[in-house]
Amino acid sequence: MPHTRSVADIGERALIERIRARIPLPPSWVIVGIGDDGAVIEPERNLLEVITTDALVEGVHFDRAFCGPADIGHKALAVNLSDLAAMGAAPRAALLSLMLPADLAVADVDSLLDGMLALAERSRISLVGGNISRSPGPLSVDVTVTGSVHRRRILTRGGARAGDEIYVTGTIGGAAAGLRALQHAALQSAHDTNALPLGQGNARARGANAEMEPLAEGIRRYLRPEPRLRFGMLLGRNRAARACIDLSDGLADGVRQIAQASGVGAVIDAHALPIQPKRAKMFEAISEAIGGGEDYELLFTVSPKLRGRLNGVRRLVKDLAITKIGRVTANRAVVLDMDGRIEELPSGFEHF
Amino acid sequence: MPHTRSVADIGERALIERIRARIPLPPSWVIVGIGDDGAVIEPERNLLEVITTDALVEGVHFDRAFCGPADIGHKALAVNLSDLAAMGAAPRAALLSLMLPADLAVADVDSLLDGMLALAERSRISLVGGNISRSPGPLSVDVTVTGSVHRRRILTRGGARAGDEIYVTGTIGGAAAGLRALQHAALQSAHDTNALPLGQGNARARGANAEMEPLAEGIRRYLRPEPRLRFGMLLGRNRAARACIDLSDGLADGVRQIAQASGVGAVIDAHALPIQPKRAKMFEAISEAIGGGEDYELLFTVSPKLRGRLNGVRRLVKDLAITKIGRVTANRAVVLDMDGRIEELPSGFEHF
User: Fold this and answer.
1) How far is A228 from chain B (nearest CA, A)?
2) Fewer Cβ close by (within 10 Å): the C or N end of chain B?
3) ipTM of this model?
C-alpha cells in the first residue's frame, strides 16, 4: 500500500495554508481574514448578532465507518446553521476549530473542507478563521457561526403562549431511520473487512440501500442535513412565529424546551406527525420519530390570530411541508394525544 | 472510596444549568444569553469585531497530572484573550465548547468554570453561550471570544517595515521552564502513585517547587498565563505599534510570523532578550526561551519616529517591562545576533 500523507507529516502551518487556498475571496466586511491572531469583521449596521457553537465528536456524533469526511464537514457546519435558522438569523461568519488525529490523511482534511465550503457557499457564510490542533483521541470538528438579525425579528424558545398552534417543517424520523440503516450496513460490511477506510464505508452503506427509496432519503438526511435557513428567516421577517427551536435533539426535546422556556405546556397529536419513512408498526415509528434527533427541522408556535402571516410565508416556500402537530396549553404538562389516549411525551435525546 | 459524581451521572442539561447558575448577570448588550439556540448580542456602534477561537486538548496542551481543572479553565480563556490583546481589542463575549470524558467528576467541571469565570470577570468578558458534548477521548476545552476595536487601531501581523524596532513585553522562557519543572515533579510523584487524581498532582508539583522562586514564577506563568490585554489596547489606541503578535508559540515563531506577513526580515539581539529564569548555560537558556511557547507576551514593532508614542504607553504600565530586542530588516532573513555571530533563528514551536 502506498504511503498516505497524514496531517502529522505536513503540520499545522501547511494545513492552514491548504484551508486558506480553498476559501473564496472574502466579502468586503471581512477586514482581516484567516492568518492573523484573530479575524476582524464589520458588524451589520442596526442589526443584532447571533453567535453559537456546536461540535461534532467522532464516536459520539459520527462514526467514520459510514460518515465520509465530506459528510462530516457538511454536517459540522449544518448543525450550526440550523441554530441560526431557529433564531431567524442570516448567516455571516464561521470559525472552524479542528482537532485531528495525527494519522488522519491530508486528503480527508481536504474533503472535510470541501464538504463544509460547498454548504458555506450555498448558505452565504464566510469562513474567516479557526484553529487546528492535534487530537490524541477522536476527530472533533467544532464550528462557531455568527448571523445577523433585526432586533424585533429574533425568534427564541421563550415566546409561546397558551392557545398557540404548534407546527413543524418537513418530515421527522428520517435521520433516525437513516442512521439505523447505516449502522446495519456497516455491521454487515465488517464481516468482510475489519477496518473500513474513511469515506469508503459511507459509499458502501449508501450503495447497500440505494434501491430502498425512503431509506436512501433518510440516509441523506442523516449524513447531509439541510438547515432550514430560508424558512427561519422568513418566519422572523414576517413575525409569524412566537417561539422557535431546531430539532437537533428530537421533536420531544424541542417541544419540552419551548414549553419550559415559555412556562407553558403542550399537546401533540400523534396522528398529525409528518413521519417519514412510514412503518408498519405505528407506535415504533412515532417513538423513533419523536425521540430520535438530527432531523434539523424547525418546530415553532403560531398565534391563531396571526395564521395569516404563516400562510404568507407558506406561499414563499411551496416545496416545504408545514404541518400543524398540536397546540400550546396553559397547564405545564407536555403530552402526546394518541386517539384520545393521553400520555406523557417520551424523553428527548441527550448526546451524553 | 465514596462514589464521585461524574458528568455522565448528571447529563448535559444539568451541566448547562450548573454553568448558568455560576454566571453573573450579563450586561445590557446581551439580548439573549445561555439557554437558547444561540446567543444574541448587540454590536458596539462604530467599532469592528475581532473574533477568534483556540482549543486546549488534554495530552496535547495540558496534562491532568499537573494541571488542575481551575488552571485548565483559566488558561483556555487566557490563550484566547491573548489573541484579542495582540489585535488591540477590548474583550466582549465568550463561547465555551466543552468535550468531557464521561467519568470526569462534576466537581472538576465546577472548578474549571470557576477558574475561567474568575479571569472572565477581571477581563470584563461575558460568557454568553456554548456547547457541551461527551468525549470518548481527551478532555477538550474550546473557547471562542469576540472583542471590539476601532477600525484605525487594529494591530495585525502584517504592518512591520524595515527599520522598525522590535520589542517584547515582560519576560520570556518562564513558561517553558515551569512546564519542565512540573513534568519533572509529576514523574517523581509517579513513583508513589500510578495515577494522580485531577488537581492533586498540580498542588503537589507546585509544592515541590515552592521554595525555588524563579521556577515557582515559571510554573505560575505556565499554568495561569496573564494575557496582556491592557497593554495591547494601549498600543492600539495610541497607534504606537506597526505590527503585533502574541507569543503563544514562542518568540522565534512570533518573529517569523510578523516577518512573513509583513514581507520583511529581522535581526534579534540574543543578549537583549529578557530571559527568566536565568540559567548558567546561556545558549540553552536562549534556545528554550525563544523556542518554547506559552509565554503569552506581546511581540511588536515600532517605527523609530514614533518611539514617543511607545514611551507614552510605557508611562501607563510602569510595572510591565518593555524590552527592545532587535530590528526589522529589508532583506527577508530572520536571524539571531550572538555577539556578532549571526545565525538563523531556530524554528518555532508547533503544537502538532
Assistant:
1) 14
2) N
3) 0.92
